[in-house]
Amino acid sequence: MKFNDPGNTTAQYTIEQATAKLANELKVNKTLTQLDLAHNQISDGGGEALAEGLKVNNTLTQLHLEGNQISDRGGEAVAEGLKVNNTLTQLDLYGNHISDRGGEALAEALKVNNTLTQLHLEGNQISERGGEALAEALKVNNTLTHLDLGYNKISERGGEALAEALKVNNTLTQLHLRTNQISERGGEALAEALKVNNTLTHLDLGYNKISDRGGEALAEALKVNRTLTHLDLGYNKISERGGGSLVEALKINSTLSILHLTGNQISDRGAGALADGLK
């Protein structure tokens, strides 16, 4: 289902009608397990209709809504659906227009939902308030394993809140925070969390502002962490000092298998030290 003229109100009405009809089918369908509606210009009305379908459907496990035009109203509706749905395991809302209000609603849903394992919210407009709300949800949620918040507007407070959540959460294995506004203070907070967290295997902090102080803190965490296998610190303004600390950590750490340091400021000498550390 593709409609390629976003300025055509007739087409938009047709999209909403088609989505509403599909949502009604979800209420009675007993076989569908995956529904992909990505890049279909679905807006809040369609999101609300699908949310109503989720409230009664008991077979769907994956719902893909990436690249649509769902904003906070639609996000809130989907969140209400998640509160009662008990089969959906993967929800993809990448590249919509959800901001803090929608993020807060989804966070409230995560506090009671006990089936969702993957939530993709990358490429929305979630900032501090939404990030903090999702962090609070992670403290009580015990099913989510994959949370993607990349390409949002999360900065220090949101990063620190997520770090506090990681100290008590024991199910999340992947946390993606690429291309936000997290700087050294957030990096330090996440490092402290990694010292006690024993489930996270994949942390993506690429394209933030971690810098040397954050890099040094993460290096200290790697000396004691025994679960993280993938760490992305690409494009974070880390120079020789942070690179040197990571070298020392790699001499001790025995679980990290992938470390991305692309696009930093480590220089030839720092790269040489990293190479020596890997021997």
Automatic annotation (TrEMBL):
CC terms in the record's Gene Ontology section: cytoskeleton
Q: Where is the signal peptide?
A: none
Superkingdom field: Eukaryota
The protein's predominant localisation is: cytoplasm
UniProt entry keywords in alphabetical sequence? Cytoplasm, Cytoskeleton
- Known Pfam families for this protein? LRR_6
User: Where in the cell does this protein reside?
Assistant: Cytoplasm, Cytoskeleton
Spell out the InterPro entries in the cross-references.
DRC5, Leu-rich_rpt, LRR_dom_sf
Q: What is the name of the protein in this document?
A: Uncharacterized protein
Origin species, per record, is Didymodactylos carnosus
